[in-house]
Amino acid sequence: MTPHFLQNLLLTKEQRQNARPLFPSLRCLTLIQWAQIFVGWLAWTCDAVDSFSVSVSVDNLQDEFHKPAHDITTAITLTLLFRIVGALIFGTISDRYGRKWPLVCNLLLMSAFQLGAGFAQTFGQFLVLRSFSGIFIGGIWGVTTSNVLENVPLEARGFISGVLQQGYAAGYIIAAAVNLSIVPQAKGGWRALFWIACGLSFATACFRALLPESEHFLQAEKDDRTRRTTKTETFSKEIKGTLKRDWLLCIYAVLLMGGLTFLSHASQDLYPTFLQTTKGFIPRGIKVSTIFGNLGGTAGSLAAGHLSQRFGRRLAIINMVLMVGAYIPLWVLPNSFFWIANGVFCMQSAVQGAWGVIPIYLAEISPPALRATFPGVAYALGNVGSECSVSPFFYDFVFHFR
C-alpha cells in the first residue's frame, strides 16, 4: 500500500488542475523546505559544473596534453558512461537509508576527484579521474530530485521541478563564466576551473550536512514500523515488483531519458566546436553565446514546469520537443552573432523546457520505494544510448556545414 504522503505524487491531471494557485503554495513553504530546495538546486549545479568543465576547456586541454579534440571529448564520454554506477549505488543507498548522508558523501567524493583532476599531469591520469567523477556525478540527480520534490506542496511541484532542473543551466553558466574570466588570468590556467568546482561541491556538502533528513523519508520509515516491516523488506519487495510488473515502464523511462539526453548533449557539448569550425566565431563570442543559451534554458524550464502543473507533464514535454524542431533553422543557419545568440537562446529554452518537467514526471511514475534509484538509473541508462550517437552526429554535422 502506498504511504499517504507519496499518494500526492500520483494525482491525476484533473486533480492537479483543481489545485491551489502556485504563489500561495510557495508562501506556505517553511524555511527548512526552502533550504532543501536551494541545496538540491546547488547540488545539481555542482553536477553540471563538473560535467561541463571538460567541454568548455577542450582547447586548453588540447594544448596541455597535446591531444586532438576527439581524444579530449573521450573524457566526456567516460563521465557519462560511468554515471550509471553512481546512480545505482547512491540511489539504492538513499532509498534504503535516507537522502541526507548519501548526498553528503557523494558531494565530498566528487570534490576530491575534481581536485585531483586539477592536478593531473598526464592525459591518462586525467581520464581515470574523470571516469571516477562520472560515478559521483551519476549519484546526485536521483537523490536530489527525490529529496526536494517529496518535501514541497503538490501545487508547487511543477514549478519547483523547473527550478531544480535549472541547476544544470546555472552550472554551465558558472563553468563558462569561470573559463572566460578567471582561467585566462589564473596561474594554473584550466586547472583553476576544477579547483573552483571542488570548492563549490565541498561547500554544498557542508550545507546539506547542516539540514535535517527528508521529513517524508522519516515518515515512510515510521509507516514501515507501524506495519511491522523493515525498510529492507519494503525496498526488496519494491525492486522485485518493479522488475516483474513494471518492466515496460522501465524501458519507457530509459528511452525517454535517452531521447531527451540526446537533445541536451547534442545541442550543447560540441556546439562551441561547431561555431568555431563552421561559423568562424572567436572563443569569446562562443562562450557568450552559450551563456545566452543557458539563460534561455532557465526561462524555458521554469515556464514549462509551471505549465505542466496545469496542462499535464507529457503534453508539456511533447510541446517543448516540437519547438526544438521548429528552432533548428535559427540555430544552425545564421552567420551573425546576433542571430546565432537568438537561435541558441530559443533552442535551449525548448530543450531545457522539456527537461524542466522531467524531475516531477519521473517522481510521479517511479515506484514509491525507489524514488531516488528509478529516476537516476533511467537517466544514466539513457545517457549510455544517447552518447553512442551524439559524437558521430556532431562530427558529421560539422563536416557537412564546413
TrEMBL record:
GO molecular function term, any single one: secondary active monocarboxylate transmembrane transporter activity
UniProt cross-references to Pfam families, sorted A to Z: MFS_1
InterPro entries noted in UniProt: MFS, MFS_dom, MFS_trans_sf
Domain of life of the organism encoding this protein: Eukaryota
Predominant cellular place of this UniProt entry's protein: membrane
Subcellular location(s) of the protein: Membrane
Protein name: Major facilitator superfamily (MFS) profile domain-containing protein
